[in-house]
């Protein structure tokens, strides 16, 4: 499917200005250029164009709010200055599986002042001696390279990062829905617990009734046994009196 058609389908009756996330992975460009994206996508924050046959980013429109850009498994070899011009607020950039060969190919990323995470996995540049040290020196704003920082600590999950940021702003989680869910669960749990206690109480009462009936039967049986014993003794006395006569 062509990129233009794929983007049209992904709009789903929305205008470009209403789209914040756009994924067009595995579609195809006709000439290796970005197609179908315009400056109207001004609210776009996440864009994924994985394996679409990109050779150049020259026709990338201005996306001032774009924070995360997925470009893995394409044929991009350089000329990345377009990114700092069109997407100045990028924090995450994935160029893994492209034709990036040398440090001069990524030098233009120095102008992405907010870039925190860069992925060049499976690019030829990763075979350079002291590759990681050189990238961190060239791009001091980058914290994570290929998923790890300079001390080889793994980057946290991106979604968890977003949640942490939201918690930092609000002080009590992204929306407070968790507390509501907990309250709802607590209410449901209370109903279940009450129902369970009522059942237990009813069962205990039934058990008590059964126990009382058993005791009553045992008492009756004991009384009958004593009566039979007394009757037998009385009969024995009568027989002895007869013998005396």
Your description of this structure?
The protein has 245 residues and is α/β, with parallel strands linked by helices. It has a six-stranded parallel beta sheet with strand order 1-2-3-4-5-6. The longest helix has 68 residues. It starts with a helix and ends with a helix.
User: What is the chains' assembly state?
Assistant: single chain
The best one-word shape is globular
Number of strands: 6
Percent of residues in beta strands: 5-15%
Order of helices and strands: HEEEHEHEHEHH
Largest sheet, in brief, is: 6 strands, parallel
Radius of gyration from the alpha-carbon trace, in angstroms: 40 Å
Count of runs of 4 or more consecutive helical residues: 6
Name the strands of the widest sheet in spatial order: 1-2-3-4-5-6
Q: Overall mean pLDDT score?
A: 80
* Share of residues in helices: 40-55%
Instruction: Note the gap between the termini.
Output: 126 Å
Which structural class do the helices and strands define?
alpha/beta
Low-confidence stretches: 159-163, 165-176, 184-192
